[in-house]
Amino acid sequence: MKKAIQFGAGNIGRGFIGGLLSNAGYHVVFADVNEAILNGINNDKQYKILVKDVECFEQTITNISAVSSISEDIIKEIEEADGIIIAADKTVETARFNGKRLISAAVSDGIKKPEELIQKIIDGDAPVYRYSGNTISNDSAENERFTRKIYKHLMNGVSNMLPFVVAGGIFIAIAFLIDTISGAPQDSNFGTNTPAAAFFKTIGGYAFNFMIPILAGYIGKSIADRPGLLVGFVGGFLATTGSTFSAVGGDIPSGFLGALFAGFVGGYLMLGLRKLCDKLPQALEGIKPVLIYPLVGLGLIAVIMCAVNPFMGMINTGLTNFLNTMNESSKIVLGCILGGMMSIDMGGPFNKAAYVFGTAAIASGNYDIMAAVMIGGMVPPIAIALATTFFKKKFTKEERKSGPVNYIMGLSFITEGAIPYAAADPLRVIPSCLVGAAVSGGLSMLFNCTLMAPHGGIFVFAVVGNWPMYLLSLAIGSVVGMLLLGLLKKNVNED
Question: How many angstroms separate the CA atoms of 224 and 133, rounded?
Fold first, then answer.
């Protein structure tokens, strides 16, 4: 039996690509890092999907196995595979795919045209991948739209940044909570007044301080592979310190905007340097990655960041001052916009843009923005869960069964729980959730709610400023979303 590897064992991988490959007679190997999913696949040897077409029916997918994408076992599976499909919106390390037929596409292509991707593997039309030191060098990547490339590079930086943001931010929030419980004064030392608080604040601060360099470093790595990591990381650090020619140790921090600039400029700078180095004698090939790339790259990014930091710093300071001086009505509008953005594509570009804006605001000391962002991301799953509870006739039996899970996902700030419902009925579900999320975001701003932790959902409500009104804002937005779903969705006929 032929073998194909699907990187990603989530809903898209199993529900779209995996099912089609299995039906085409392939043994499908799912590669992922989620141990629970991997164990489930290997233990059950099958799974069921609900196919929604002219008629809804249940389909059992067999001929499957799973392997950890970070284990040594994946190497053997790659060697035995007839083809590999990557449907992802972030960079995947591809050196191990050298010599294999490889399809690289966006996540949206995995949803909209999985048959086309799979047919290329079946017909042998997929290009043979040749590793050249870059991440992807096949025809599909070369013809990739520039805007999608930029988005993919940005998402690579954001996805690697998030663990530092979340863990560090929650540690800092715990420090504030400890000082609050102990009755410490909310002065300039708030969060460090007690030994326990000082511990969490210091450790969280260390993790949080890596946020910007990691973002820039992995944007650079996504563009130029390993040579881009050093340049992006150092450029991001120079952005945080605000190094200039007059004060190399730091003067005018350019923050988040500076990090984005450093990541993209540093990455493309290294691509240009690599092309120039291609003309060097073959005898110098060995010293390029260990000497020429890091040495020249470091020098160039240092000069560039010292030159641009004053200008980026002024923009960053101006944006911070603007947010701080916004009147109440303007803040409400901003809250509505950010809340709506968290709901409009539920984990897509708009959602990620709003979330990144919220985390950047935390770094600048604006905590009300993050509060609006998180509550906007919590509303869609909760609204859907409420709708499946109180408007049962609007949903299929399978949707009603899955509905209560969204209570947990929504309260945990996992917006993606709403995606299956939005995919099944986007014209009604998305507008309903968007309006509900916008209402919650606006109310959060109206009530001056603040949030110092960038994630956690209801589990970090203890550190929310004005949490009773924050909870009320969440409830109102969720009910609004539920009522709109009940009004817009049609009754389901399951006869």
Answer: 8
- What whole-number distance in Å separates Cα of residue 171 and Cα of residue 72? 34
**Which residues, 6 or more positions from 94, have their beta carbon under 8 angstroms from its beta carbon?**
86, 102, 104, 129, 131, 135, 136
The per-residue pLDDT for range 362-386, each reduced to its tens digit, is 777 778 899 999 999 999 999 999 9
Q: Which amino acid would we find at residue 223?
A: I
Fill in the DSSP letter of residue 395: S
Sign, CA dihedral 255-261-264-270, equals negative
Q: Distance (Å, rounded) from C-alpha 472 to C-alpha 475?
A: 5
- State how far the Cα of 412 lies from the Cα of 407, in Å rounded to an integer: 8
Please, what is the Cα angle at 191 between 186 and 195, to 5 degrees? 120
CA nearest 8: which of 95, 96, 138, 106? 106
DSSP 236-281: HHHHHHT--SS-TT-SS--HHHHHHHHHHHHHHHHHHHHHHHTTS-
What pLDDT, in 10s, does the model give residues 25-52? 788 888 887 777 788 888 888 887 766 5
Name residue 125's amino acid.
D
d(CA 153, CA 420): 26
Q: What is the third-level CATH fold of 3-142?
A: Rossmann fold (3.40.50)
Cα–Cα distances in Å, from 337 out to 66, 203, 398, 467?
41, 33, 32, 21
pLDDT of 348 strictly over 70: no
Domain regions of the chain by residue span:
3-142, 146-313, 326-488
pLDDT of residue 136: 44
Closest among 358, 294, 342, 354 to 474, alpha carbons compared: 342
pLDDT at residue 56, rounded to an integer: 61
Is 145 exposed, middle or buried (CB count within 10 Å of its CB: 0-12, 13-18, 19+)?
A: exposed
| pLDDT of residue 137 exceeding 50 | no
Q: Which of helix, strand or coil describes residue 192? A: coil
CA 33, 34, 35, 38 dihedral sign is negative
Q: Which residue has the higher pLDDT, 281 or 294?
A: 294
Nearest Cα residue to 148 out of 88, 215, 94? 88
How far is CA 283 from its chain centroid?
Answer: 42
Q: Which residues contact 297 (CB under 8 A, 6 or more apart)?
A: 227, 230, 231, 266, 269, 270, 273
